[in-house]
Write a structure and sequence with these properties.
The chain has one domain. It contains 5 helices and no strands. The chain is mostly helical. The protein is globular and about 35 Å long. The longest helix is centred in the C-terminal third of the chain and has 14 residues. The protein is 47% helix and 0% strand.
Length: 114
């Protein structure tokens, strides 16, 4: 198994890799939740950058059926703040850097390329 395959398999396992749905946001587990929950590091948002705030956002994301779509959208739109698809902005940056090192785009890295 190549390194690229190992990375793709690991990330696909982590996020569940469902098929892309262009109307994914209507199915999101966070629909109807207070958006501040997902921006704990923003002024006026959540309760701060502590682990409690992050855990609250991740609990919502954990079982979300469109977690991969959310993550993909956040990476493609270069969202600088917030928790999207279970990952913080720092984790998304690391993911993008890994993809670039592997010569992959985000869809290839996540194993969801069309």
């Amino acid at each position: 198994m190549s390194v690229n395959r190992k990375v793709t398999a690991s990330l696909g396992d982590m996020v569940g890799a469902p098929a892309f749905d262009p109307d994914w946001s209507a199915q999101a587990a966070c629909a109807g939740e207070d958006p501040d929950i997902f921006f704990p590091d923003s002024p006026g948002g959540g309760v701060g950058t502590d682990e409690v705030a992050l855990s609250k956002a991740r609990r919502i994301c954990a079982d979300c059926p469109v977690r991969v779509d959310c993550l993909r959208e956040a990476v493609k739109r270069n969202h600088a703040k917030g928790v999207f698809g279970y990952l913080t902005q720092y984790e998304r940056t690391a993911l993008v850097n890994l993809a670039e090192k592997q010569g992959l785009d985000i869809d290839d890295l996540m194993g969801t390329a069309a």
